[in-house]
Amino acid sequence: MTPSYTDYFKLGINHHLLFPAVTNDWDLHEQTLTKLAQTEIFEVLDLFLPMEAERQRRELDIIWASGKEVVYNCPLLGLEPGMDPNSSDPEIHACTLQCACAHLKAAQRAGARKMNIASGPDPGPSERSGAKACFVEFLCELGREAAEREIMVLIEPFDRSIGKNLLIGPTAEAAEIVECVHQEGVESVGLMLDMGHLPLLDENIYQAFELSAPYLYHTHLGSCVKSDPESEFYGDKHPPWGLKDGECDVPEIVEFFDGAFAVGYLRCGHRATVTLEMQPYPSLSAEESIDIWLEKLNEAWALYWEQDRPTNGAEDQQYSCTP
Q1: C-beta separation of 77 from 98 below 8 A
Q2: Nearest Cα to 219, choosing from 247, 246, 259, 187?
Q3: How far apart are CA 259 and CA 44, in angstroms?
Q4: What whole-number distance in Å separates Cα of residue 131 and Cα of residue 127?
């Protein structure tokens, strides 16, 4: 009998990818958040909040009333004018840190215990070493602030090629950054893993889980388009599963479960957070798209459990939630 995935993880949904127009329309942001907060299937909301005080207060009321767990998604600061988390310029560094701390405060108000953050633009091979040192410094300062608020800051690795073109970057280098931050005595910085970014990083799910496992606190389920430059979803545009020329569908979701169980991210008694992060299917509504994603998720979950399971010792306890 296939166990319920709710024994192993809390399913989430990314608000601003499900409704992409909200990034430019704060009224729509509030309206769609109200609707999504009432969707019972999701226990977790990945989101960011407006900085305007009254609007933020209204959205916080929506979140608090929902009782859902929040994973705060800090906007990509390195793509904003005058900001860069890996800049050596003192003014840019200070401005970026101030903005990140404002989002950290919003995360705390929302009750979040995790906040995703990304590095800034990749400056190229010759300048990466210096940029990484600056990013470590930035994370140390942000991490100290986060520790006081009991929040984990999670680096989200992005590609350096056809999507966001950010410094971090390969999962191995993301793990190295976390290690450097920890060596400075700041333990409130970790990693998250996004399955939709891995094809753009030329990484497979098993490598990514193994490298990130010691520091892993959150995951995203998604896809990308890598092979067709003419596609509207080319690069890191978060296409839905199973899209023509997309990289991820049910077989890749099964691999996600394989990798997550192999390193213990998914295990009995530890309800990890797993968030759907995709745009709706072209010509389908958000609700219709969610129905398809849930069908694919449940299909992959059942296929995963049809495989041979460990049969002895401590490994078996990782998989079985029955006495």
Answers
A1: no
A2: 259
A3: 21
A4: 6
Q: Is 71 exposed, middle or buried (0-12, 13-18, 19+ CB in 10 A)?
A: buried
The CATH code for residues 5-319 is 3.20.20.150
- How many other CB atoms are found less than 10 A from the CB of residue 9? 22
3-state secondary structure the chain: CCCCHHHCEEEEEEHHHHCHHHHHCHHHHHHHHHHHHCCCCCCEEEECCCCCHHHHHHHHHHHHHHCCEEEEECCCHHHCCCCCCCCCCHHHHHHHHHHHHHHHHHHHHCCCCEEEECCCECCCHHHHHHHHHHHHHHHHHHHHHHHHCCCEEEECCCCCCCCCCECCCCHHHHHHHHHHHHHCCCCCEEEEEECCCCHHHCCCHHHHHHHHHHHEEEEEECCCECCCCCCCCEECCCCCCCCCCECCCHHHHHHHHHHHHHCCCCECCECEEEEECCCCCCCCCHHHHHHHHHHHHHHHHHHHHHCCCCCCHHHHHHHCCCC
pLDDT tens across 114-158, in order? 999 999 999 999 999 999 999 999 999 999 999 999 999 999 999
Residue whose entry in the numeric block shows the structure tokens 């903005």: 99
CB 78 within 8 A of CB 46: no
Q: For residues 281-304, give the mean pLDDT.
A: 97
Distances (CA, A) of 186 to 99, 126, 130, 212, 215: 20, 28, 20, 17, 13
The type of residue at 100 is A
